Amino acid sequence: MCANVFGVLKSLFGKPFDGGKRMDHGVPQQQQQHPMEQQHQPYHPQHPAMMRLYEVQKEVASLGPQVCTFSGMQNDRDYKRLERELTRLLLEVDQVDTEGKPELQGARKRAAQEVEGLLRYLEENASHPSRLAIEELSTHARQLVDERVVAPQRSGGVAEINDELVDALQELVLRLTQVKTEGRVPLRKARYRALTRLCAVQDVLEGRTQQQTLSLPLSGETHEAVNRINQVMVKVSVARSQLVALLMGLSGRDSCAHLSRILTEMQVELDALDVSGNAAIRNYRKQVVEEINGLLKHLDLEGEGEDTRRYDLAQNNSIREIEAVRAHVSHLREGVLRHCMIGDMSFRPKAELQSLLTHLDQVDTAKNPCIREARRRAVVEVQAIITFLDLREALVCRQPGPGEHPSHRAVWLVLGSLSDLQAQVLGFDGKRVDKSYMMLEELLTKQLLALDAVDPQGDETTKVARKQAVKFAQNILNYLDMKTDEWEY
């Protein structure tokens, strides 16, 4: 939308309001004109109405980029400021005296439309369902962190950092990665800021150093060094809670600069300790220093969300690398399906697919959950083709003996049907509302019911085969679901 706004602004105000005729030092190129032509001459740019509209345009041009990258909510201070400024400009445009002239009225109308467009874009993004979903998840995360970490520390207690808390935060991260942004810059930015802060909190909580107990006896000097490190550890614990509060917007008093000074002073205090005579204590101090460094690196997140390359992952090198692999996978998938349609099993690019898995495993995700999810989905796409080829080969090579258990034969019949359905799923390129999607989902569910109806009659081989077939069918359903969930990075 913003590109359209500025494109129209350029067409409106990017040239003088002289009807397209160039003026040299105020002298028109055409000196002689018909009297009727003079009556319809467009207004000179020095006309008071045009001058006022031009002033409005300059203010709109300065506010436009702020509107197009604003990622907050309607109750934010910046939202209210932008809304107030745009409303003021709209009123000023409305007050421009056009003297009843069509040319001036047209220019005023177009200027009003541009301001209204920015106001509408600002409101749409701040109240968009995806923006509300991001805010809801962020609020949930803040409440969780406040109850378990920040509030206990402020009251003099101990933070409740356990696996349950870590798992809950990870679940919120995964849900944030699933929020759709429709390619809108403000929504991408809001999601990125929420994710970076939540991931930073995870990193801070998981990277905490435990207070160490050293074997006795300790010399007086050694005991003093350990005591000093333990005192610093208490301060680090408090600083950790303060940092988490800052990252989650729960701190009204602390600032990044203040916390940075405190952490730096701790480093200086640790550096002054003489621990050269004891390797265990030296290692203990090193761990504490590393945790302090880890806390310091998270203090520069405030301006990080302003960098377009951060939240617009289409520009990210890792995402580009993943997309290149996906394009290659798509080409291989088409080849596999084309050969299978004519019963030709000679095209088996398994080695090439395995090399793509290795390539994906080496992609640097930089701990970004969206990049991790993009890589995971690409891996699933590769694995789907590999399992399809493996099952096709197994079905072709299968040579059941006369003593094969009837239940085992029934499982293989279902696997044959699943192989045919998987070929359709691999080639499916629609949406969940499509009839073909619903048909595939129904047929796959029927195969699961067929497997459930198979009675192994105590045959262990059949039990194992049925269990694997059920897992295979569920994987196909999950893959179909993944292909149609309209996920975006």
From TrEMBL:
SUPFAM superfamilies membership: BAG domain
Disordered as annotated region, ranges: 17-42
GO biological process terms held by the UniProt record: negative regulation of protein ubiquitination; protein stabilization; regulation of inclusion body assembly
Gene3D superfamilies per the UniProt record, alphabetical: BAG domain
Residue ranges of every copy of the BAG domain listed in the record: 55-126, 225-303, 352-393, 407-484
Ranges annotated as biased composition (Low complexity): 28-42
Single GO molecular function: adenyl-nucleotide exchange factor activity
Keywords: Chaperone, Repeat
Name recorded for this polypeptide: BAG family molecular chaperone regulator 5
